[in-house]
Structures are given as structure tokens and as C-alpha cells.
Design a protein that fits this description.
The chain is an alpha/beta fold and about 475 residues long. The protein has a single domain, classed as Alkaline Phosphatase, subunit A (3-Layer(aba) Sandwich). About 35% of the residues lie in helices and about 15% in strands. It contains 14 helices and 17 strands. Strand 13 and strand 14 form a beta hairpin. Helix 9 runs antiparallel to helix 10 and helix 12 packs parallel to helix 13. It is globular and about 75 Å long.
């Protein structure tokens, strides 16, 4: 399609009225009025969103990349203890797909968790000894134990859950939220990503910036990555010898050139470039203030644990997520790698849990103390779970687990989510779902619902199709976990 024709077909009402004299005059006037203290003014987004009154205004996604073992943290299966080293019954496996890492094993010996479980809070949620801080806030969480996916290997699985499709090229969840809802802070991106350090298995799976990319949406909606060393955002600082005034003149001249280009070919990406240059200029003052933790009270810093003082750790990232949230950033996603325990559960998994357990607790409590939890959705989970059978050598003290997409656990908290519930149920082997399955599309539909979006109505035309995050199959928000 010719760029001009494509542009005309993708114009929204907001774009159209924004080009009228009244729209331009109003926008110009708005830039002259200083922001009111504490007032939330939305920048960008679609005119008809939200579709209904949202319970949450923003979201934080804590992504445990690699596949956390639900069997060793949240999905308690005491009957397995009597079946140690017995073969997984074929009546349970049912010929389901295996990875090439275990498909050649002569047998599939059952590996019960070596970790002690206990019930916590009034809800009686089962949580293992690996997650003592999470256990303390069990009554704030909704544990979904029946999440499932079709993807069985890391790259397609994480791409699937982040973008709604196993193949690269689609828009990520955060990009959809930026496109649909915009942001409440014009000096920071709508979508911010952090990749935290980890202390578990060092050979972690690679992650790619397409996981927070905009795909077919305008590129201004892609996630902006915050770095833990050097400039927090690449190319944010002025080059040597260039002061702010010079930078401003350069951007103004560049904007005029880009506008001329846009007037000639009407490529929306030209306007996206203008918007991104302007955002980068504003971030030169907003990002240093964001990253300065010196004014955080000692009791708050202590609540996140000792790693909060180490840039790039999960603890430091969680504190930054709270700071971004209170500044009106729409979506924050933290990737924590190293959850791929194929052979050494007892050596690697405790380290991973220590990385995230206390910071997650601190984040929830911090949001709650500041009155932000009721309007902030927090999601914790990975791309799939782990097998009940052992990969590699099996002993009572150590074992490994392969990828398992058919059931895994995700917890959610905050805006729009019921507190202190467990939803969904797996069989005695944590291998199949026996009650209330939740596909990852259902989970993403639930996230969108909490933010006031009907997932079926948030679409974008690309290559002749009305694309949406949750695909073309019939999926739904999980009403049973909604407050």
C-alpha cells in the first residue's frame, strides 16, 4: 500500500481533530499552562479509550525469564513424596510434547520438591520456604495456578506471552498500552523496561528488545530500556561541547526537516521520530531525577533489601518501578533472567528466589503505603513452568526440571484483582490442569480489562488484518479473580 493511502486509513479521530485549527490552538495553549501539582494529564492514547472505568491506571510486570518451577514455590503436591523416583504414568503424560532435552531419556522419574510448604494468611495459600517474604503478603495476592501456553521453548514462549504471537514482529503488551492509553507524564515514556541482574544459573537465556518492541504500531510506543551503568538511556546525554541551547536549536531544525518530509510523503513514522526526539530532550532532566535515590527514606531502602544499593539488581529495579509508577508511567516491565533450572534446583533456585522475594514484598507494601496499589496492577510470572519429572541425575537433595507449558503459576495483585485467592487447579503431579484453565491470552485479556480495555476492541490494521494482542481465538478476562 502507498504510504499516503495507508496513513489516511489509519487516521484516528484524535489525529483528525488534532489537525483542525481548534485542535492545534488548544494544544498550543496547553503548552503554556503549567501542570497543576498532583494533576494527572494524559498525553497520547486513543479517543475512545478506556472502554470502561478502569480499576488500575498503570501496571508493573515482573517477568521471571526462564520458567520458574511452580512445583518448588507455589503448587504444593505432597502426594509426590511417596512416588519419589517412580516413573511418570503415561495416563498423566498422555503423549504430550516434550523438549529435545528430555525426549530421549529412557525414563521420566518423579522428583518431589525438597522444599517445605506451609499455608499462609487467612487465605491459606500454600507457599514454599523459598519465598518467605511472598508468604507474608499472601492475602494481598491472587495465585493463578492454571496458566498454560502452547510454546515449549524459551524464545517462542517469551515472545508469545509478551506479544501475543510465537513469531517475532508483533507489538508488545506495553506498546499496546502506550498506543491505547498514552501516559500521565509527558517527560517520561509511557513504557519503560529494565533487565535486572541475577545470581542463579549464569547461562541464562538471551532476551531481545523485540520483547518490548512496537511491531506494527508506531515506533514511539516501543519500550524504553533503562540501563544500570553509564547513561540510564542510550544517547540521552549531549555530546561533548554541545550545551542545552545548542541541542534545542538542533532539534528545532531537525523537526522542521522532518515535518517537510512528512508533508511530502505522509509517513507516520516521520512524526514518530519528531516525538521521540522531543521526548529524549525532556528526559534529559526527568531521568536523572528519577534515578536519584538519595532522597528515599532509609526505612524504604531497607525494606527492599541490601541489593537495592546495587544498580541493576532486581531490588533496585523494583524501587525504580515504584518511582516510575508514581510519576505516571503507564507500564513498567522488569525482566529477571536465570530461572532455567534444568539440572541444579538446589543450587540455583534459592538464589533466584532471594533475588526477587523481598523486593517483591517491598514493592507491594510500598505501593500500598503511598496509596498507589489500588490503581496499580502488579503481575509476577514467567513464560512456562517446569516438569514434575527429573531431567538429569535425581537425588532427594537435588534434581533438575525441564520446560513444561501445560500448567504454571502466576500471581497478580493491586488494581482490579481480588485479594487472597487461589484460582485454578492442577492434578497431583502438577502436569495437567483439572480446574479453570487460564491461557496466556486470557491472562493478557485480564491485564487489559483491569486497565479499562476490552481486548476484543483494541485493534490495529496491519497487512489487511485487524491485529490484537490476544489473537483471533475466543479468549476472555478471568472474571473470577477480578475485584
Amino acid at each position: 500500500m502507498h504510504p499516503l493511502n495507508e496513513h489516511i486509513q489509519t487516521l484516528t479521530r484524535r489525529h483528525f481533530f488534532g489537525r483542525t485549527t481548534l485542535g492545534l490552538g488548544t494544544a498550543a495553549l496547553a503548552t503554556l499552562i503549567p501542570d497543576r501539582a498532583g494533576a494527572a494529564t494524559t498525553t497520547g492514547g486513543l479517543a475512545d479509550l478506556p472502554h470502561f472505568a478502569p480499576k488500575a491506571k498503570r501496571a508493573i510486570y515482573l517477568f521471571m525469564n526462564g520458567g520458574p518451577s511452580q512445583l518448588d514455590m507455589f503448587d504444593y503436591k505432597p502426594a509426590l513424596d511417596q512416588l519419589f523416583d517412580k516413573d511418570l504414568p503415561e495416563s498423566i503424560r498422555k503423549g504430550q510434547r516434550l523438549t529435545t532435552m528430555t525426549s530421549g531419556q529412557a525414563r521420566f522419574p518423579l522428583a518431589p520438591s525438597k522444599y517445605k510448604f506451609a499455608q499462609h494468611g487467612q487465605s491459606g495459600a500454600w507457599v514454599s520456604e523459598l519465598m518467605p517474604w511472598t508468604a507474608k503478603m499472601a492475602d494481598k495476592l491472587a495465585f493463578i495456578k492454571s496458566v498454560n501456553t502452547e510454546a515449549i521453548n524459551h524464545d517462542p514462549a517469551v515472545t508469545y506471552i509478551c506479544t501475543g504471537h510465537q513469531l517475532p514482529g508483533r507489538a508488545s503488551l506495553g506498546a499496546w498500552l502506550s498506543y491505547g492509553l498514552g501516559t500521565e507524564n509527558s517527560n517520561l515514556p509511557a513504557f519503560v523496561v529494565m533487565t535486572a541482574s541475577w545470581t542463579g544459573r549464569k547461562e541464562a537465556q538471551a532476551i531481545y528488545n523485540r520483547l518490548w518492541g512496537s511491531g506494527f504500531l508506531p515506533s514511539k510506543h516501543q519500550g524504553v530500556a533503562l540501563r544500570s551503568s553509564g547513561d540510564p538511556v542510550l544517547f540521552l546525554s549531549n555530546p561533548a561541547g554541545v550545551d542545552a541551547a545548542t541541542r534545542r536549536r538542533m532539534l528545532d531544525a531537525l523537526a522542521r526537516l522532518n515535518q517537510k518530509q512528512y508533508d511530502e510523503v505522509a509517513d507516520p513514522e516521520t512524526q514518530a521520530r519528531i516525538a521521540q526526539y522531543e521526548m529524549a530532550f525532556r528526559m534529559q532532566s526527568s531521568v536523572p531525577e528519577l534515578m536519584d535515590l538519595s532522597r528515599e527514606p532509609k526505612n524504604v531502602l531497607d525494606s527492599y533489601g541490601p541489593d537495592v544499593h546495587k544498580p541493576g539488581t532486581f531490588a533496585a529495579s523494583c524501587l525504580l518501578a515504584r518511582r516510575l509508577t508514581e510519576r505516571g508511567v503507564r507500564f513498567v516491565q522488569i525482566f529477571h533472567r536465570g530461572w532455567d533450572q534444568h539440572f541444579n534446583i538446589s543450587g540455583d533456585l534459592p538464589n533466584q528466589c532471594r533475588d526477587v522475594d523481598q523486593p517483591c514484598h517491598a514493592l507491594i507494601r510500598d505501593l500500598e503505603r503511598r496509596g498507589l496499589l489500588d490503581e496499580t496492577l502488579v503481575v509476577w510470572g514467567g513464560e512456562f513452568g517446569r516438569t514434575t519429572y527429573c531431567q538429569g541425575k535425581l537425588t532427594r537433595e537435588n534434581y533438575g526440571r525441564d520446560h513444561h507449558p501445560r500448567c504454571f503459576t502466576v500471581w497478580m495483585a493491586g488494581g482490579g484483582i481480588k485479594q487472597g485467592i487461589s484460582y485454578g487447579k492442577t492434578d497431583d503431579f502438577s502436569y495437567n490442569i483439572v480446574e479453570n484453565p487460564v491461557h496466556i491470552h486470557d491472562m493478557n485479556a485480564t491485564i487489559l480489562h483491569c486497565l479499562g480495555i476490552d481486548h476484543r476492541r483494541l485493534t490495529f490494521k496491519s497487512q489487511g488484518l485487524d491485529m490484537r494482542l490476544t489473537g483471533v481465538e475466543e479468549h476472555r478476562a478471568v472474571r473470577a479473580i477480578l475485584a
